[in-house]
Amino acid sequence: MLARKILVIEDEKIISSKIRKSLQKLGYSVSEITNSGEEAIKKVAETHPHLVLIDVCLAGEVDGVHIADIIHNRFHVPVIYLTDSSEYKTLYKNQLSEPFCYIVKPFIESDLHFAVEMALYKHQSKKILYEEKQRLGSIINSMGYAVIVTYANGCIQMMNPRAELITGWKQSEAFGKDLVEVVSLVDKDVGEKIENLATNVIETGKVLNLPENCTLITKEGKEIVIGDNVAPILDQNGNITGAVLVFQDITKRKETEAQLIRNAFYDGLTALPNRVLFLDRLRQTIERSKRRSDYYFAVLFLDLDGFKEINDRFGHGIGDDFLVAIARRLELCLRGGDTVARFGGDEFTILLEDIKDITDATNVAKRIQDSLRSPVNLNGYQLSTTASIGITWNFSNYEEPATLLRDADIAMYRAKRQGKATYTIFS
Predict the structure, then answer these.
(1) Helices then strands (H, E): number in the chain?
(2) pTM for the model
(3) Residue 59, phi-psi category: left (phi > 0), alpha (psi -120 to 50), beta (remainder)
(4) Taking residues 293-308, what's their average pLDDT?
């Protein structure tokens, strides 16, 4: 497999050299480094990189944010912003509001690696999502669209069979009625009823796309997510004689989008948040703690004791079922706002937000140990385990999730060495 190509746009030579060495060490190809925004656009066109890292405050007339927009929109290449803390605070509400789109200088190699991999992963996920939308669109097109035609006064003139099927109205019933009587639409984003779209289009003469989360209330009261547009109907002289509403049921597409997002952020076996989502929530929690001096949180790194023996003796099927059962028990040990994630294998991580002190974290660890003492009944087998738990919290003013998790992992291994079935606080 060829190394993925990365273009670095950074006008500070020392930093750019360090980034290049780090990226090459991590196995990426960094063929070009440029400190000019204009030159960067040319290099992107020539080299077709998989990713671009760009300083938001490049020297010159055109800033890094503008260059990044051009690269992203014209070449469809993912971009990571390089910014210092002051630039981050200024730009956070705008360009840097999307998760994993930036990295704050100075940064350690592991953070750079994580940011690059997340950017590449997100780009690939969006590409897959886009392709899935296209595929679903083709399927729906082959099935046909619902079509409703109105007169110039916004009253219904015609409905096709597909429109009858979706709305629950027959054309004979709907003929002559105001469009909103038959096509009752709600914008779910704002929770408001949508007025007569045909009248709007007839008055403006412009095509109107349906809102992103437009929901149709059928004659029977069923809610169906629909999408497409309303367009004016013009006669040979260019006069508007009515409007045509073309729409389709996109419920399945919405469900697919939601499933794709779920696959990206949740563990397929246990349905718990995965490593990616846990790190994102942890990063948000760290930022929240920076704004509140009295805000404390803790991370528990949990490894099941003896899980390998269960897998070896009873097989991976029983092992998987056992992990699912343990996941449900861990959830019951937490408050509603806390997060438990499957970090990998038989390792779990827990984020406890807004705690009073470390005692809250140790109480949860004790509660988990008590919960695990009760055996799990699977296929007639009584299976039980214990857990080695490492605990760390933000009393030490952690800046990065990776550092906090590292310390929790160290504490967990200390618990292992102390005889397992216990917890240790990192010190």
Answers:
(1) 15, 20
(2) 0.49
(3) beta
(4) 92
